[in-house]
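For the sake of transparency, this paper describes our internal protein records without simplification. The record that follows is passed on verbatim for readers who wish to inspect the format:
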Amino acid sequence: MWYQDQAGAGLVGDPAALATPQPGACDTAQPMSTLQSQAARLEAAVAAILTLRERVERAGPWPLAELYGTEAEASWGPPELLAHVDEMLPFWLGEAERILDAPADAPVPFGRVAADTIRISVIGRDRTVPLRELFARLAADGARVARRMRELSDGEAARIGVHQTRGDLTIESLFEWFVTSHLEEHVVQLRMILDTRGS
């Protein structure tokens, strides 16, 4: 069983095992934005999780984890993992928008840590939502976040916010650390959960 992530910052695993984007998916006649390649990676990670839907559903029903917060023995199955990725995508997009909306000369505080009570409460609530809805939310919010990433100019991607433990981070780094790489790690995690169950 995999242990839950800490502060949305990552899990051990090999993101190189992800599904690759479809040929031509990133082709554009316009200059690529700073976040173009990140957006493509995000889309590939979302697609990889959606591809696992049949395996997840076939292996069900999944018991809810007894502990799912920051406890050392807390562990996640697909319900907790999907509830988390569904809540993290709009959360971090909102934090990026918070930075963009602040004066450029005054970096705005943003983010959270693993013990954030709202984060844990949302995971605890939404892990009971039917799997079909959790997968649908991932598809919708993954597309929305990737689209917004592509809209940002280089200047906007370079805007800085202040995270309470990681210090100054650009919006580009925010998306890389808390969204793109983190979702890639959850792809690896979900595959290992399924493999461990023999599904």
Notes: Strands lie at 2-3, 75-76, 108-110, 160-163, 167-170. Residues 6-30 have pLDDT under 50 and may be disordered. The longest strand covers residues 160-163. The radius of gyration is 17 Å.
